[in-house]
C-alpha cells in the first residue's frame, strides 16, 4: 500500500502555475522514478543526484569502521585509503606553527598552509601571523620609537644639549620595522625546514573527506590529504574609522597594516595636535 502510494505521488505532475525549467522535465521524471524505487523514507537527493534512503545510509554507518564511508555511499568524494600527511595545519600564526613543530617532534609528517588575503590597500605579509606582522611586534617597535623621541625631549631638562633640531623620519622607522619583521618571517621558515615540516604559501579549502585544496597566489591548485587537520586561521583586523568625542577630544583608530604600508610621510602627522574637536578632525580629512 505504502509503495503504491509513493509511486502515485512520484508521477504526480507539478501544480498549475509552476513552470519546469527548459530540459528539466526528463531530470524530474528520472528523479521521481528513483525515489519511487526506494523502500524506506526519507529519500535524499544532493547535487541533482539520488543518494539513497535511510536504510542504506544506516547500514553503511553500522558496517563500516570509518563513518566517513557513509559519504562515499551517498555519492560524495571517496575517502582516501592512505594520506599524504599525518597532519595539515591551516594557518601559520603562533598557534599553528607551535602545533606543527610539536607534532614533528613525534616523527609525524606535517604540512603548514599559510596565506594572507591582501587588504583593500593591497598589503599582505609573511609567515608568523597577525602578532608578528601587523600586531604585537610592530606595535611595540613603534611604541619604542615614540619613547625614544620623548626621552630626547626630556633629556634637555637633565642637561643634554643638541646642536641641531632632532626630527623623526617615518619612512626610516617603517623600513626598520619591516626589515625586522622580515627577519622573523625567514626565521620561522628555517625553523619549519629544520623540523622537516613542509610549508606552502597557499590558501587551504576543504573539498572532501580528509582532502584539502591549496591555492597559491598565482592561482595554481593542488590537492592534499591528511589524517588530521588543525584549523588555526585566527582573525583579521577590520579597517574602520572610529570617532569618539569626550569634551573636546577626538580619537581616530586605524589598522597597523595600513600604518606600515603608507608611502611617504603619512598625512595624519600633519593634523593639529590633540585636543581635536570632531569638526576640526573631519575638516582635516577633507
UniProtKB/TrEMBL annotation:
Residues 1-59 are annotated as: Disordered. It comes from Geospiza parvula. One of its GO terms (molecular function) is flavin adenine dinucleotide binding. This is Uncharacterized protein. Residues 46-59 have a biased composition (Basic and acidic residues). Residues 1-10 have a biased composition (Basic residues). InterPro entries: FAD/NAD-bd_sf, FAD/NAD-binding_dom, GSHR/TRXR-like, Pyr_OxRdtase_I_AS. Its cofactor is FAD. One of its GO terms (cellular component) is mitochondrion. SUPFAM superfamilies: FAD/NAD(P)-binding domain (SSF51905). Belongs to the class-I pyridine nucleotide-disulfide oxidoreductase family. Keywords: Disulfide bond, FAD, Flavoprotein, Oxidoreductase, Redox-active center. Transmembrane segments: none annotated. It holds the Pfam family Pyr_redox_2. It comes from the Eukaryota. Residues 12-26 have a biased composition (Low complexity). GO terms for biological process: cell redox homeostasis; cellular response to oxidative stress; glutathione metabolic process.
Amino acid at each position: 500500500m505504502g509503495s503504491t502510494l509513493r509511486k502515485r505521488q512520484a508521477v504526480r505532475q507539478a501544480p498549475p502555475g509552476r513552470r519546469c525549467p527548459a530540459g528539466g522535465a526528463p531530470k524530474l521524471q528520472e528523479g521521481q522514478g528513483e525515489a519511487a524505487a526506494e523502500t524506506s523514507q526519507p529519500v535524499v537527493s544532493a547535487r541533482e543526484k539520488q543518494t539513497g534512503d535511510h536504510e542504506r545510509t544506516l547500514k553503511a554507518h553500522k558496517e563500516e569502521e570509518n563513518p566517513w564511508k557513509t559519504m562515499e555511499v551517498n555519492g560524495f568524494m571517496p575517502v582516501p585509503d592512505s594520506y599524504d600527511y599525518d597532519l595539515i595545519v591551516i594557518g601559520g600564526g603562533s598557534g599553528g606553527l607551535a602545533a606543527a613543530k610539536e607534532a614533528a617532534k613525534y616523527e609525524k609528517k606535517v604540512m603548514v598552509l599559510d596565506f594572507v588575503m591582501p587588504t583593500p590597500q593591497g598589503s599582505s605579509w609573511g609567515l608568523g601571523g597577525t602578532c608578528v606582522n601587523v600586531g604585537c611586534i610592530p606595535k611595540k617597535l613603534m611604541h619604542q620609537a615614540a619613547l625614544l623621541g620623548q626621552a630626547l625631549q626630556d633629556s634637555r631638562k637633565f642637561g643634554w644639549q643638541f646642536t641641531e633640531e632632532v626630527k623623526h623620519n617615518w619612512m626610516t622607522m617603517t623600513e626598520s620595522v619591516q626589515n625586522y619583521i622580515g627577519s622573523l618571517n625567514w626565521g620561522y621558515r628555517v625553523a619549519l625546514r629544520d623540523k622537516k615540516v613542509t610549508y606552502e604559501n597557499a590558501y587551504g579549502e576543504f573539498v572532501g573527506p580528509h582532502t584539502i585544496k591549496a591555492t597559491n597566489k598565482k592561482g595554481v591548485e593542488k590537492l592534499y590529504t591528511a589524517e588530521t587537520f588543525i584549523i588555526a586561521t585566527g582573525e583579521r583586523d577590520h579597517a574602520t574609522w572610529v570617532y569618539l568625542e569626550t569634551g573636546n577630544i577626538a580619537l581616530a583608530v586605524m589598522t597597523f597594516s595600513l600604518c606600515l604600508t603608507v608611502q611617504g610621510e603619512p598625512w595624519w602627522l600633519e593634523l593639529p595636535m590633540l585636543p581635536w574637536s570632531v569638526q576640526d578632525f573631519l575638516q582635516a580629512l577633507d
